[in-house]
Amino acid sequence: MGRQLTVLDIMTIQKWEHCIVQWMEAYCSRLEAKAAQIEVKKFSSHRFTSHHCAPETVAHSFD
């Protein structure tokens, strides 16, 4: 298995880890499958098409 891991990019592994953590948190909070999917999609990296335009609610969360 060591050889297969050298083929993977570290960024790919980190993205999968982040995704798995989001799913685990959604299920630990006892959400149903559909509600868990919606909750996980809130943290998707593909949500915004440009880094120049984020909703005001997201911008205020960094203040």
What can you see in these coordinates?
The structure is a single chain. The protein is mainly alpha-helical and about 60 residues long. The protein has a domain at about 10-45. The protein is about 65% helix and about 0% strand. The protein has helices spanning about 1-5, 10-30, 35-40, 55-60. The longest helix is centred in the N-terminal third of the chain and has 19 residues, at about 10-30. The radius of gyration is 15 Å and the shape is flat. The model has no long low-confidence stretch (mean pLDDT about 75).
Secondary-structure element order, as H and E? HHHH
Overall shape: it is flat
Question: Which consecutive residue ranges, at least 5 long each, have pLDDT under 50?
Answer: none
The count of helical stretches stands at 4
